[in-house]
């Protein structure tokens, strides 16, 4: 092998591991309650992007520690609360949502993340927006 090829391979492995494209990304959540008259569009940030994943066809030959299925997930987050307009007095008009401060590549934590992407779910309003 040529020295250039070896150096390129080492650089790619090193750089690819540290330079994932996982970062906070702008996202709009549409929130509505059955009892309320309006839908609220909330601008927030979520973690999105590419994380280096190692998966081999020879899974039975490798140790589990050699396999990695990382996802782009929250490193730091905070919660904010919004007021949904047009709610009657007997309804709680508040909605709390996460805001990604920073992100990391790691295992998906089901305590605070939806780890399954559902294709049939939509994010839109059925009521007028305010």
From TrEMBL:
One of the protein's GO biological processes? G protein-coupled receptor signaling pathway
Major subcellular location class: secreted
Residues annotated as domain Glycoprotein hormone subunit beta: 21-125
Q: Which UniProt keywords apply?
A: Disulfide bond, Glycoprotein, Hormone, Secreted, Signal
Asked if the Swiss-Prot or TrEMBL record annotates the protein with the keyword DNA-binding, the reply is no
Matching PROSITE patterns, A to Z?
GLYCO_HORMONE_BETA_1, GLYCO_HORMONE_BETA_2
Q: Which GO terms describe its cellular component?
A: cytoplasm; extracellular space
Query: What superkingdom heads the lineage?
Result: Eukaryota
PANTHER family for this protein? GLYCOPROTEIN HORMONE BETA CHAIN, THYROTROPIN SUBUNIT BETA
Q: How does it assemble?
A: Heterodimer of a common alpha chain and a unique beta chain which confers biological specificity to thyrotropin, lutropin, follitropin and gonadotropin.
User: What protein does this entry describe?
Assistant: Thyrotropin subunit beta
């Amino acid at each position: 092998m040529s020295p250039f090829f070896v150096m390129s391979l080492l650089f790619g492995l090193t750089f690819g591991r540290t330079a994932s494209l996982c970062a906070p990304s702008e996202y709009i959540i549409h929130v509505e309650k059955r009892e309320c008259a309006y839908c609220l569009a909330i601008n927030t940030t979520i973690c999105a992007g590419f994380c280096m994943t190692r998966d081999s066809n020879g899974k039975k030959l490798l140790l589990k520690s050699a396999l990695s299925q990382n996802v782009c997930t929250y490193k730091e987050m905070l919660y904010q609360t919004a007021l949904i307009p047009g709610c009657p007095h007997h309804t709680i008009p508040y909605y709390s949502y996460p805001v990604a401060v920073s992100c990391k590549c790691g295992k998906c934590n089901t305590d605070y993340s939806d780890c399954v992407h559902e294709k049939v779910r939509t994010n839109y309003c059925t009521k007028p927006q305010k």
